[in-house]
Amino acid sequence: MTIKRCPSCGYFTVESDFDICEVCYWQYDAVAQDMPDKVIGPNNVSLHQAQVNYKEFGASEKRFIESVRAPKEDELPENNVGC
Fold first, then answer.
1. Neighbours of 65 (CB within 10 A)
2. Nearest partner of 62 among 70, 53, 51, 71, judged by Cα
3. What does the pLDDT read at residue 60?
4. pLDDT for 2 beyond 90
5. Neighbours of 51 (CB within 10 A)
6. What is the dihedral of CA 31, 61, 67, 58, to 10 degrees?
7. For position 83, what pLDDT does the model report?
């Protein structure tokens, strides 16, 4: 199984095209990656806004702050070189 990098937080947490990242609570959406400034698909914020939000308060949206968790060791980018 290939784990993909979450486009919102940058950790390797996405197993399928419909996964919700447990680190930032962004629902993976390939269309949003092609249009990062638009609010489309299953998320209520644009991908760019989700990235800003994650850096600011640790979740893709404030309503998910209590639902997120810290990344696991094997989800860190430095442990996924070449992916």
1. 13
2. 53
3. 98
4. no
5. 20
6. 100
7. 61
